[in-house]
Amino acid sequence: MHFNKRQLPLLAMLTALTVALSLLIIIPIPATKGFVTLCEVGIYTTAIILRNPGGLTVGALSGLLIDLLSGYPEWCLFSLIIHGGQGFVVGHLTRNDSMRPKQLIIPLICGSIVMVAGYFLATSLLFGWAAGIASIFSNIVQNGLGIVVTIPLVTSLSRIRPQLFNH
Description:
Blueprint: H1 7-24, E1 26-29, E2 34-37, H2 39-50, H3 54-70, H4 76-93, H5 101-127, H6 129-160
Antiparallel strand pairs: 1-2
Helix pairs in contact: 1-2, 1-3, 2-3, 2-4, 2-6, 3-4, 4-5, 5-6
């Protein structure tokens, strides 16, 4: 799979949008003193519209850039792999005719499993099993929010601009 020259600016723009969704919109979780972001919305929407390698590319690059810009360089490689895998899985499992909400659920849940499991393993490697287990809740919430926002966004886009989804 190769990108054509027209896709590169689109991928750059979608990566920047995904990074902005993560860095500018931060929703606190008081119970865990953590937060969730909307980066999954950018990754999932790109993966559904462009499939692969677009979902993989935007997921990987945005994950890397978010950690670099946030001051967490130790997470960069993990995020590159995890969010890239998340975008790849959603892009791979999305079909041309799957813009209806019920048909998007399975690919999005599979992408969420990749992210939650990936960060559980990464957190466990860096900080121990207890920290890995503690990370599960906020990652599930973040992915749930991503799914809840992505489904109406993608279904609306498919009605407004159906040519986006014709490959």
